[in-house]
Write a structure and sequence with these properties.
The protein is an alpha+beta fold. It has helices at about 20-25, 30-40, 70-80, 85-100, 105-150, 155-160, 165-175, 190-195, 220-225; strands spanning about 5-10, 15-20, 50-60, 60-70, 180, 185-190, 200-205, 210-215. The protein has a four-stranded antiparallel β-sheet. Strand 5 and strand 6 (about 185-190) form a beta hairpin. Helix 3 (about 70-80) runs antiparallel to helix 4 (about 85-100). The longest helix is centred in the middle third of the chain and has 48 residues, at about 105-150. It is rod-shaped, with a radius of gyration of 41 Å. The model has no long low-confidence stretch (mean pLDDT about 80).
Amino acid sequence: MNELINVNYGDDGSPTVSGRELHEALGIETRYNDWFKRMCEYGFAECEDFYSILSKTSDNGRPATDHALTIPMAKELCMLQRTDKGREIRKYFIAIEEQWNSPEAIMARALKLANVKLKALQVTVSELTVENQIMQPKADYFDELVDRNLLTGIRETAKELKIKQNRFVQFLLDKKYLYRDKKGKLMPYAKQVEAGLFELKEFTNEKTNFSSTQLFITPKGKETFRLLCIT
C-alpha cells in the first residue's frame, strides 16, 4: 500500500497525501478535477482539510493542480467510495494516523520543536550580546560625560554659589567637610564622601606618568552647601 500512496510530511511533521495519487489508487474513472470538486461538496475546506499544490506530473505539458490532503480527509474520501479498494486504503490511513499519534511520535515532534525554539533563543542571545558589546562603549562614554557635567570643582562650585573661592574653602574646612593633607592638598573626610557630597577622581598624565586625584563636588553636595546660605 505504501508503494501506491506516498505520505508526505510538512515542516511541522503533519502527514498529507496527494489527491491525484489517491484518485489513481482508488481507481476512479472520473477526471480528477471533476471528482475532487464533487468530493468538496461534502464540506471539505481549503487550508483546513486540504491545500492546493502543483502536481509532480504534467497535464498536456503544463503543471497540473493537485491537492495535499490531510489524513482525516483522505480517510473520509476512501469511505465515500464504498468499495473494497477504498476500505483497504482507509485502513492504511488509520495505521498512519495511529503512528502519528503514538507517544514516541509525539515526543519526537516535541523534541524537534524544542530544538527549533532553543536555536532561535540562542540566535537572539547572540544578537543581544553583539549589540551590547557595540553599545556598551557608547553607554560608558555618555555616563562619563554626564558625570563630568554634573561634578564640579571647588572653583566652579564657588562661582555657581556666587561666593569667593577662599571663603568657600574656609567654610568647608571650618565645618569639617574638608581637611588639608601633609602636602597641603584639600581632601574630603571619608564620611562626607560616603554621604555623597564629594567624589575623588583619579587621573594619569600618560606623557609624564604622573598620577594624582582630583576633588569634585557632587550635585548633592552643591545643593547642601547652597541651602546652608553661604554669603
